[in-house]
Amino acid sequence: MKQSKKGISLILVLALLLCLAACTGRSNPTGTENPGSNTNSGAVEGSDPASPTSGGNTGGENIVFWDMYWGNTQYESLVRSLVEQYNAEHDGPDVVVEMRPWATYYQDYLTAVMSGNAPDVACGQGDNSVLYGRMGELVDLSSIVEEWKANGFYDTFPKGSIELHNIDGKQYGIPWIMDLRLFFYNIEMFDEAGVEIPARGYFTFAELYDACEKLANAGFVPMAMPGLDFMNQQAINYLLVAGDGDYGCDENYQAAVNSPRNLEIYHWIDDMVDHQYIAPESVGFTADQQIAMFASDECAIIISNMERIIDPELYGTKYGILTAPVWNENDPSRNIAYINPMVVFSQTEYPEECKQFVKWWVENNGILFSEGEANFSPSREINNTTEMMENARNKMILENVFDNVS
């Protein structure tokens, strides 16, 4: 008789509910953490974020820019220095940045928009372009894309990443940050357990299962998967995309959580749990606890974003990053990436000036990634700097994973 499946039930219930929410464009309704990045969920120490009730566009002579807490503790100061640089280089209204906490993300944005106090420009979660674009609350930014097509900058973005934010022919968002989900593994544990990476550079799901069996037989906990926060949804999404599943929705954006391939992937996870290849205790973990487990050498594999608590110089020696597994050996590997946009709200008095700022910001914000550790720019041109490639973790991702995204 099989063991109790309380753990997998919790994982799948959470995942299915969140996938259904994603089909409607309204995932993570509580906004308790940044669902697109394992970053600070509140204010950085010493900062003074605007209160949730503060207005954005109040009809003044400034462009109000709402940004979120991405990256490390330097991120906010880097943002403010870039804004100062922009203001010094450009005539017209000054840009004023307000840092917003993720804890009240949905409430802050929706309340501001519906009350007529939207910011002029904003970053935020990836569905801003869809949600507010369909509400008629965003400015069409197609002119930026046309300029980039003319000068070649457009070609530095992953295929389809810009079109992701185009709705009915209108460009409601401009990609500015690429937040990858990644397959991290402990090289030393793999070597000791006799697990070899296939020649193609990534596993099939069957091969990954066999690898976990070898790890378990060698006395290691093969894998951890959190069940208590947004990373549960994103780990499931990662596996669905990797296994050529339906990502919770079919091509017509109807719920498809029980499609044949999705069910195969769920059963694969079920078997992993039954054999304790996924650590049973990790069902009660947050994303941070999962990362801590991996960093303490208590498990061999996690699916996560960029875990900043591990010394980047250990990548390539103690820790490795693989591109995503595939269901069939001839399938291409596909990694999930959250490509979040900048948007301009139509309540602004300065639509052309806002477009100018958005274009400049995306073209000139490389320091946010190299020093602020805000993951990656969607533009390979912005990422391909000496500063980025000096970091062993960044180098491994850019060379092995970056181009294989979905």
End-to-end Cα distance = 39 Å
Helicity, as a percent range: 25-40%
What Rg do the Cα atoms give?
21 Å
SSE sequence, one letter per element: HEHEHEHHEEEEHHEHHHEEEHHHHH
Low-confidence stretches: 1-33, 35-59
Largest sheet: 5 strands, mixed
Count of helical segments? 15
Tally of DSSP β-strands = 11
Mean pLDDT level: 84
Q: Beta fraction of the residues?
A: 5-15%
The coarse overall form would be: globular
Largest beta sheet: strand ordering: 2-1-3-11-6
By helix and strand content, what is the structural category? alpha/beta
Describe the structure.
The chain is α/β, with parallel strands linked by helices and 406 residues long. 37% of the residues lie in helices and 12% in strands. The chain has helices at 6-23, 75-89, 105-114, 128-134, 142-151, 187-193, 205-217, 230-242, 260-274, 287-295, 351-364, 367-370, 380-383, 386-389, 392-400, and strands at residues 62-68, 94-100, 121-122, 166-167, 170-171, 174-180, 182-186, 223-224, 301-304, 319-322, 337-344. It has a five-stranded mixed β-sheet with strand order 2-1-3-11-6, covered by helices on one side. A four-stranded mixed β-sheet has the order 8-9-7-10. Strands 4-5 form a two-stranded antiparallel sheet. Helix 1 crosses helix 8 (230-242). The protein starts with 5 loop residues before the first helix and ends in a 6-residue tail after the last helix. Residues 1-33 and 35-59 have low confidence and may be disordered.
